[in-house]
Amino acid sequence: MKSLNLVLSSCALLCLVISSCKTGPVNLFKTASPYELYQRKLSTAGLDKTAMGKAWINAGQESITKALRVKLPYKEQGYFPAERVAATAFRFDVVRGQRLNIRLEKTPATNFMVYMDLWSFREGNTPKVVASADTLNASITVDVDENAEYLLRLQPELLKSGSYTLEILSGPSLAFPVKGDGRKRIESLFGVGRDANTRRHEGIDIFGAKHTPVLASADGVVTRVGENNLGGLVVMMRPNDKNFTLYYAHLDKQLAIEGQEVKIGDTLGLMGNTGNARTTPPHLHFGIYTGSGAIDPLPFVNPEVRQPKAITAATANLNAMLRSSGKTELREGPDAKSLSIKKLEPSTIVLVEAATDSWYKAKLPDGSTGYIPSKSLSAVKSGLRSLKLNPQQLALYEQPTAVAPVKKTLDSGATVNLIGRFEDFLLVRDTEAETGWVPAALTAK
Prior knowledge:
The chain is mainly beta. It has helices at residues 2-19, 34-44, 51-65, 298-301; strands spanning 68-69, 74-80, 88-94, 98-107, 114-121, 128-134, 139-143, 148-156, 162-172, 186-188, 193-194, 199-200, 204-207, 213-215, 220-228, 232-239, 245-254, 261-262, 267-271, 283-290, 293-295, 321-324, 328-331, 340-344, 349-356, 359-363, 369-373, 377-379, 385-388, 394-397, 406-410, 415-422, 425-429, 435-439. Strands 10, 13, 14, 15, 16, 17, 18, 19, 20 and 21 form a ten-stranded antiparallel beta sheet that branches. Strands 2, 4, 7, 9, 22, 25, 26, 27 and 28 form a nine-stranded antiparallel beta sheet that branches. Strands 1-3-8-5-6 form a five-stranded mixed beta sheet, covered by helices on one side. It is elongated and about 95 Å long.
């Protein structure tokens, strides 16, 4: 009875701590992320020494090492149950010049906190914390300054349930430099050969009618208004807080002046075909230059922003136990070409955590997480068949491993209902509706 009272007291204390963990001004931890603030408050209350507190910290750390690989744009709908300590993480690549937009919507909108943390991984460098947020501030926007792999972690607070919809999108970090958007107007890309391949194109060409307004792609300062043999009439500007310069060439008329402060959309000049473009239709040569030379400007201004595919996998199965209909595979990403994590036999039991496109993000009984086509899974509405156990008493385990806690001991020769399997164990339900795992090798033929 004393141990039960101790557990109840710990849970009451945990609820009290959680209720005080909503992020806000905290003078002692000005530089800490919302996630770190929450973890520190758990530690201050001594809850990092409890089984539940340790599980929360471990789940956050393990999710990083087991992060799943996705491609942008990405969208998933998932569910975090109060009774299970959970965290999830994703790895994805983003190209220099893109703007990364991460949005999270949750239900319920209040009294359910989800922490978001974003890292970047550049080759040869240690991970760098890029941004953090909680769902009081449920979005992250980052301008990507180097090609890199990013990792995003989501983790809810303890003892709260809720569903969420996550979107990770990438688009241009600069405004389109010509009045009137249009990817089809870009007809010559960065790096293509010029002058019998003696040099490479150091920008993109955007075609349009003569005197089409050429616009500032960012707030900044005009650094040069001049003329040269290749570019003809040119304007250069430096965006605020950036380490590169924008180059506008082949203008028919320059309207900006050196030193002028401009805003996004201000007209810098009018499109033409001056310089070495005299024999071509009017167009803007748009380039971006850094201290080490020209870089591809297309990701910075590409107006085509792809949207994620609609979720067609049934979201009614979130947080439900399903089983495989036949042989299938658990994959690292929601793509048939993605790396296979594990091959699954028919009737393998999985727990659905989230849905994306026509895939489920699912967890196996051993803790492995990955993606499975939703069409490969079916509901566990009834047992597969009756199964008579060997005439010996069998332990009914909580998990499919012989070191798991024993829920009860089954009678010799008992008949159970077979629900599914995982590797060398069977999930069964006895006549008293108790469900657990028994070793497959110990059951009768």
